[in-house]
Specification:
This protein is an alpha/beta fold. Helix content is 33%, strand content 26%. The strands form 4 sheets. It has a 5-stranded mixed sheet with strand order 1-7-6-4-5, with helices on both faces. A 4-stranded mixed sheet has the order 8-13-12-11, sandwiched between helices.
């Protein structure tokens, strides 16, 4: 049985004071703190890259659990802003830096805010189909590379980060149920144009409130669980206002759904693993994760603790 064994992350040293940014954009500081919910944004510096951030996350993982590089059979990296334009695939560059075996499979996934939930299922299915026992799922999507410095809607929101999850045959958590959805007709709400990010915040907000709660309900029904059976709800950390309203609309108890983006911002595919890393210490029995955004794409999965 394959599943999540351990997880680690990396935040770059660069920081942007979001309240100072608010002043520059002539935006009310209280709005930034209470509605966006972000006071500090981690930012890649000149020496940072998708590969270096992924390696840093892996080094943190090795401080938590013993990982023999010779045992790694699969490396998957989720990013939409890869180094070198994605050629070669960045997972191959990570493979080289870690000195992994040539018998290790490597490929990238181009997904955004739903990427972690998708990625977990992709990696586990690929490994199961090919008899593998240990694999790594990396997430790293430095949106700072495509931010328009004059666009307050995005500059005040997105942070940079990386994560790595060890998928193995000695898991702490295994997949119970999942649902995946796409609304390609709504893709213009979050897109890159002339190499700069464009976001229709209202459209993304409406999408989150209308579609995500329905999927959460469907996943719970599929797993034959009720809301009270879930110990922890990890929702993509888009913005505080969007999270609070999505949690309320879905009927999730607020105390079970942490909102922790004040010092990270929206880190795209890394937002859920950043949360998960912090929450694993409390050993929740049942975890529901839901990622939603670029695509428009949304994915929800339930993981249960191995006893």
């Amino acid at each position: 049985m394959l599943g999540i064994q351990s997880i680690a992350s990396y935040l770059p040293k660069g920081r942007v004071d979001n309240l100072e940014q608010a002043d520059r954009f002539e935006t009310d500081r209280e709005f930034v703190e209470q509605k966006i919910g972000v006071t500090t944004l981690p930012r890649f510096e000149a020496e940072d890259s998708v590969v270096s951030a992924s390696i840093a996350a892996f080094k943190s993982l090795c401080e938590k659990v013993s990982v023999d590089p010779a045992d790694i059979e699969c490396v998957v990296l989720c990013t939409q802003n890869p180094d070198n334009g994605g050629l070669p695939h960045n997972s191959a560059l990570v493979h080289a830096e870690l000195g992994l075996s040539e018998d290790c499979a490597c490929f990238d996934i181009g997904l955004g805010c739903s990427g972690y939930v998708y990625g977990l299922s992709v990696v586990q299915a690929f490994m199961a189909a090919n008899g593998m026992k240990k694999g790594l799922l990396f997430t790293c999507d430095p949106y700072s590379r495509i931010l328009n410095p004059e666009d307050k809607n995005t500059c005040l929101l997105f942070g940079d980060a990386a994560s790595v999850t060890l998928i193995s045959d000695s898991p702490r958590y295994t997949l119970s149920s999942a649902k995946f959805s796409t609304k390609g007709a709504g893709s213009e709400a979050l897109q890159k144009n002339s190499n700069l990010l464009e976001m229709n915040g209202r459209a993304v907000f409406n999408f989150a409130l209308q579609d995500v709660p329905k999927q959460i309900k469907r996943v719970l029904e599929s797993a034959e669980l009720k809301m009270e059976d879930v110990d922890l709800f990890l929702l993509h950390q888009g913005s505080r206002f969007m999270l609070e309203n999505t949690i309320k609309r879905a009927g999730i108890p607020a105390e079970k759904a942490p909102i922790k983006l004040a010092e990270t911002g929206n880190t795209v595919s890394s937002s859920i693993p950043l949360l998960l890393e912090k929450e694993l210490d409390s050993s929740p029995g049942t975890i529901l994760m839901s990622g939603f955004g670029v695509g428009l794409s949304w994915a929800t999965a339930i993981y249960t603790q191995v006893k």
